Amino acid sequence: MSTLSTLVNLFLLLALIGCSSWTVRSISSCKHININEVRPHSVSITEFGAVGDGITLNTKAFRNAIFYLNSYADKGGAKLFVPAGRWLTGSFDLISHLTLSLDKDAVILGSTNSEDWPVVDPLPSYGRGRELPGRRHRSLIYGHNLTDVIITGDNGTIDGQGSIWWDKFRNKTLDHTRPHLVELMNSTEVLISNLTFLNSPFWTIHPVYCRHVIVQNVTILAPLSSPNTDGIDPDSSNDVCIEDCYISTGDDLISIKSGWDEYGISFGRPSTNIIIRRLTGRTTSAGISIGSEMSGGVSEVHAEDINIFDSRSAIRIKTSPGRGGYVKNVYISNMTLVNIDIAIRFSGLYGEHPDDAYDPDALPVIERITIKDVIGKNIKRAGLIQGIKGDSFVNICLSNITLNVSKKKPWNCSNVKGYSELVSPEACVQLNERIFPDHFSDCYQLPDLVRSSSSRNRAAWLLSW
């Protein structure tokens, strides 16, 4: 076995057992959300004529079952159980006070006929479909204006069978923007847990205009070559907790968004209070990304115990003139990186606009971003941090970062100001002011967050390996 293969296997083992107890800590901050996990009434999808042969289309059965269960919404809610089998379906809507529960051998399959994915209006904070002007396809599992919703299972599977959509995208034969696998809009008290999500046509899990959302103990997989198959994209949502997830996809593992240019500015719904813990994965893009659609603002993002390997970048902020909005008060700590092209990448000229009506003078505010306690092996470049001329990114703070870097010029920085301490290789000159003691208040910090000695010991051991 090659040294590289050994290192990646070692990394995966550390990701599973070394993050200060992967399993025990899964009962954490996510538990503050009040979700009713006990339902007094339960039915199986088979009671509505569904056939789990992977061939029979069961859209009508899912819709009829959920219509029937709606009568129990004010009686403590209900559960729709999906037993072992392969259950082909088109798009269907959820209801409030519902648990959709999958058996460990159950697979919900998205139809390969695009007509089974209805076309709906674009999101108001985007003004058009994300890929094409006009409308967009609705997600496979969809809901709006809901409360108290659970999508869960004993590691059952939801497979979007996205290859037909990826081919349409590559061949430029799409009529409308591709669908997500799961999208919930204007909803609250949402739990998505203990499932595997495969092959989404577009972004996989998309809570938009939501609050009080948990995504916990999920696996999200798509080929690294699949276009724009983001893992989890909180969008104009608040109080979102993402924990204990493994993601390997063709785009960002987690991408925090809040609307696109003038539409996002006008809609004015930020993403705030986003917690990400114990994330492991790889991607052709970024591990944790903010933007590029961030025109409603993004703040109070706290991420810790993050393990990224074989990826283009680990942390990414993407924005552009015309976006407006802000990204501020971001705290990312305790990251382990292996085989990353660019560990930290901020882009201030990440183009693409919905139309020509955007205001080029709407400049984003990027400030108070703290990244600390990071180790990396086989990193090509430590950082590429490029702000906007006349609109510098400010109060970028780096602390206790050790990266094994192959590039002779490990940092490339422009239009950025900030501070650093204990950074190797030494940060770029724009960030070389020391944090202590004069500038401590300029750096966003979580005073109650204390890193464990076990994490530090693990870091030292990996780097000396």
TrEMBL record:
The keyword Mitochondrion does not apply. InterPro entries: GH28_Enzymes, Glyco_hydro_28, PbH1, Pectin_lyas_fold, Pectin_lyase_fold/virulence. GO terms for molecular function: polygalacturonase activity. It comes from the Eukaryota. It is found in: Secreted, Cell wall. SMART domains: PbH1. Belongs to the glycosyl hydrolase 28 family. This is Polygalacturonase. It comes from Pisum sativum (Garden pea).
